Each structure stands twice: as C-alpha cells, then as structure tokens.
Amino acid sequence: MNSHSSVQTAYGVTSVRQQFPILQQTPYGKPLVYLDNAATTQKPQCVLDAMTEYYTTIHSNVHRGIHYLSERATAAFEHARDIVCRFIGAAGREEVVFTRGTTDSINLVAASWGGANLRAGDQIVLSTFEHHSNIVPWQLVAQRTGAELRIIPLESDGSFSLDRALDTITERTRIVAIAHVSNVLGLIVPVDAIIERAHEVGALVLLDGAQAIAHCGVDVQKLDCDFYVFSGHKVYGPTGIGVLYGKRAVLESMPPYQGGGDMIRRVTFERTTYNDLPYKFEAGTPPIAEAVGLGRALEFVQSIGIEQIEQWEGHLIEQCTQLLERIEGVRILGPRTDRAAVVSFVCEGVHPHDIATILDREGIALRAGHHCAQPLMDFFSIAASSRFSVAAYNTPEEIEYAVRALEQCLTLLR
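^ that's the sequence the OP posted. Answer follows.
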C-alpha cells in the first residue's frame, strides 16, 4: 500500500471518489469495488445534480417553443453540444450530432452513408476485435448493397500488426470502421497511420471511441477521422445519450437516417426539405436532460485532466497486470503494453461466470462473458473471459483486494 501512496496523493483519488455516491455502498456487507467500468461508468454527484436541476427548474421541449422554459431548456441543450464540440476538438458545433449512444451512431453512419455510397464489390474494413455494435450494422448494409467485409487479422499472440492493417486497406476499400481502444484487450490502436492510409485510397474512417473517450485525449481534427462515435454512460455521463462527430462536408452529403419532428424545414405531402446540420440527424424530441448530464460529465473529466486520468489508470493497469501474472494458470489476453484501462484474462479450468459469482459476494464487480466480441473470443479459442476495467475513481488497494480475492476463488474452485 505504501508503494502507491506518493502516486495516490499526487493524483488525489480520495477527493475523486468522494464525488461518487454509489461507491459508498457495501454489497453483502463488503465495500463496493467497482471494476466493470468498460461496461459503464458510475456518475459523479455533479452530473446527478445537473440533471435534477434541469428537471426541477427548466424542463421543456427544445427548439420549438418561444416561452421561458423552452428557451432555457434549448440553451442548456445547445450548451451541452458546445461542451462536446470543445472536448473532442471538432471544427464546429454543427459536426456534433446527439444520438442514443455509440450503437445508434454507428447504425446511423452505416445506414445513411453506407446505404447511399456502398456498391457491390466495395470493401468495408473492420478489425478482429470489434464490438458487435461495430460489426452487425456493417453486415446489414453489406447485405443490402453487395459490399463485402474485410477483417484486419491479429498476430497469433493477440497483438495488433499495423503492417497487416495497412495491407488490408486496398483501392476497393470505401470505409474503415475500427475501435480506437478495444473493449476486451484494452489495445490502443495506432489509428493515425490507418487514417492516413485510408485517405490515400479515398476511403473514410469511423473510429469507435466508446472505450477511448474517458481514458485518452481525443482531438478529431488532429486525428483527421471522418467520424468519431462514443456513449455518454462510458464517460461518467447518463445512459441514453451518445455522440456522432462527422466532418461537416460528409454529414451534409448524407441523407437523413430517421424522419420526424425537428429534422425538417418544410413538409408537404408532395415533398419535404430537411433542416441544417446537426438537426437533420436529430429526429424527434432529443435526450435533453441526458445531454445536460453529458456536458457536465465532460466538464468533470476536464476538471481532473484527461492526461492525469490516463496516467493514473495506466498505473492501476500495470499493477493489475503484474499481480495477475503471478497467479499460476492465469492467461492475460492480448499485449502487455499500449493498453488503456482494461485487463481481460482466462483462468485454466475455471469458468469466468463462476469467478464473477464468487467475487460478487466479496463486493467486487467485474465482467465475465464474451464482452460483445465473439469473433475475438473465437480467435482465442475461448467462449468467454473475465475482465477488470478501471476508471478515475479506482485505487491500488481495490486492485490488490480484487486480485487477492481472485486467488482465493481459484484455490476454492480448483
């Protein structure tokens, strides 16, 4: 414990933890050790307060009202868009589209851009470690258009080969859709070179930032990606809200994804004209309170500093990896370096669900299963794995406690 004290004091994890009411719980009489952050993060009090304040003081529908509440609700909603715009470094607020989450954002791009631009023989490039949300929408549009999927292979040890990735992108590639960070391996993908190669052949790039947005600095203009997507609930914000960033020229070229209120300019039974960006892609009443909560969550991250969070989580992941490697029969999946916030592993002769069940009784929340990445499980010839994933509020003591509980669990089950 003392070996971590200087790092812990410099980071200030105690003050960070105090902002999360849920972490004070004691399930089964044990302190809650929440290590399932790749699935969803907990919410600081400031986010909860912002949403409560919205509902108790200014709730109204946005954009369409001229009364006091509607104007204030609209201002709060659009202020959240400005926060997102600055947080990801977008060129303009019209490039920030609010969606229901990462999955919704990817489906929007696949259906709208993909449906309008893909043809038979075109190639959609994905990676072996993609989340199902970045596989199935592309399969659906490929079936409709005759395009085909090409998959970037991994090395035999699960590491990422940039050379293989670049070789997979060809003159027939029309879009590369790839995770910025793998939700299973924690692998940080060298996306700069992939984006450059894709643009050389005239292809677009969509980055799935669901696992990156809370752990790595993101600047979409520096990346030069064409689309960037993420979910609010994975960056200390509420569920039910996500973001699609798209370059303005690309978004303007795309047809609407859904029809309804607010995405229109003029409707007749003969013809409809559509609203300007970003509203063209925001049909119906948007998730207003959730947008307010997301904006406050991003301000919370900025108050700590994304670089400080990244360094702290790197310290935790290094500690977790070293402790797991000492346990006989434990195999960590994927590379040991260039990882963010996630360690997935399998234990010889023990099912991950049994581990999760036993550790749950010790107050430890971890994930067990295929993590919505069944092709990656197939690559490793396993059905499931266990996963520890950290956030800004986790501590070295929690890591030590969780790994020690894992050791005791394996002794019991073996």
